[in-house]
């Protein structure tokens, strides 16, 4: 069965999509996107993801050509048509076709929704933890989920060579975020995560809420590289990862060198929340 998608106002199949070579997303990288996954057959945290997509679009002065209601209805229909047991939902909005390669013309946006089969990380990563590498870098317009992932893509070979799961961006002595995840540290059982200069993730926000609900103190503030490396526990959060313990950074032991008690408690709380969603 051909995978169904939404393309500029209609449901079609992937093989029918034709991107105009003069689309600003292709010519200039002028676009935003968002990714969510399903839980129990439903789009997980769809309202929160919609608000982030709106914020990203606003940052580039782009207009989403559908309403929130239409978006939710379309996603629901696509999930029913594709019938994946669990799926990723990728939404992309670009400046579209323009008569001037440096000018966005409202009303000519390219907007599409892709449904992809969800691929889980190996269970060993959750039970034993994963590694990460650091990179001196801060994303352009970090508060928006823009389509520019040049730095992350360029350094994939470096990451894979070192056996790491993620690349953690650091800048001016601060640990910011990972290439496709948010970062957390635990110090004296307090859960801390950056707030400024990053993309605010939906799993990040849910994890903070779950931490408070389960009696842990939380704080949103800058984290120095030194503090990051000396934390009691480290973990990442992301839509396609949930909560992942980090036990090595740049090949050296991080935290306890194994998933810590606070991280494991939050992983359990997240799993319970997701199962009941």
How much beta, percentage-wise? 25-35%
> Which bin fits the share of residues in helices?
25-40%
How many domain units?
2
Q: Find the structural class using helix and strand composition.
A: alpha+beta
- The fold-level CATH name of the largest domain is D-amino Acid Aminotransferase, Chain A, domain 2
Distance between the termini: 28 Å
Let me know the largest β-sheet: 10 strands, mixed
How would you name the oligomeric state of the polypeptide chains in this document? single chain
CATH class of the largest domain: Alpha Beta
Please count the beta strands (DSSP E, at least 2 residues each). 16
Structure at a glance:
The chain has 277 residues and is an alpha+beta fold. The protein is built from nine helices and 16 strands.
């Amino acid at each position: 069965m051909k995978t169904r998608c939404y393309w500029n106002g209609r449901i079609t199949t992937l093989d029918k999509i034709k991107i105009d070579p003069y689309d600003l997303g292709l010519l200039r990288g002028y676009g935003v996107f968002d990714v969510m996954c399903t839980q129990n057959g439903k789009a997980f945290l769809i309202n929160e993801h919609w608000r982030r997509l709106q914020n990203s679009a606003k940052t580039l002065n782009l207009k989403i050509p559908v309403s929130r209601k239409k978006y939710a209805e379309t996603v629901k229909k696509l999930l029913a048509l594709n019938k994946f047991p669990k799926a990723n939902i990728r939404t992309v909005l670009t400046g579209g076709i323009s008569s001037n390669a440096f000018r966005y013309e409202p009303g000519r946006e390219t907007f599409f929704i892709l449904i992809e089969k969800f691929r889980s990380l190996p269970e060993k990563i959750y039970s034993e933890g994963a590694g990460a590498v650091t990179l001196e870098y801060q994303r352009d317009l970090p508060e928006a989920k823009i389509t520019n992932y040049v730095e992350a893509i360029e350094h994939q070979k470096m990451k894979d060579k070192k056996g790491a799961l993620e690349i953690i961006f650091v800048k001016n002595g601060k640990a910011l975020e990972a290439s496709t995840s948010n970062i957390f540290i635990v110090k004296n059982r307090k859960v801390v995560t950056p707030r400024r200069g990053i993309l605010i993730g939906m799993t990040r926000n849910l994890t903070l809420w779950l931490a408070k609900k389960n009696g842990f103190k939380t704080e949103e503030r800058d984290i120095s590289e030194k503090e990051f490396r000396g934390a009691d526990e480290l973990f990442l959060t992301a839509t396609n990862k949930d909560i992942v313990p980090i036990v090595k950074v740049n090949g050296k032991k991080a935290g306890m060198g194994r998933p810590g008690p606070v991280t494991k408690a939050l992983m359990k709380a997240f799993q319970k929340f997701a199962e009941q969603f």
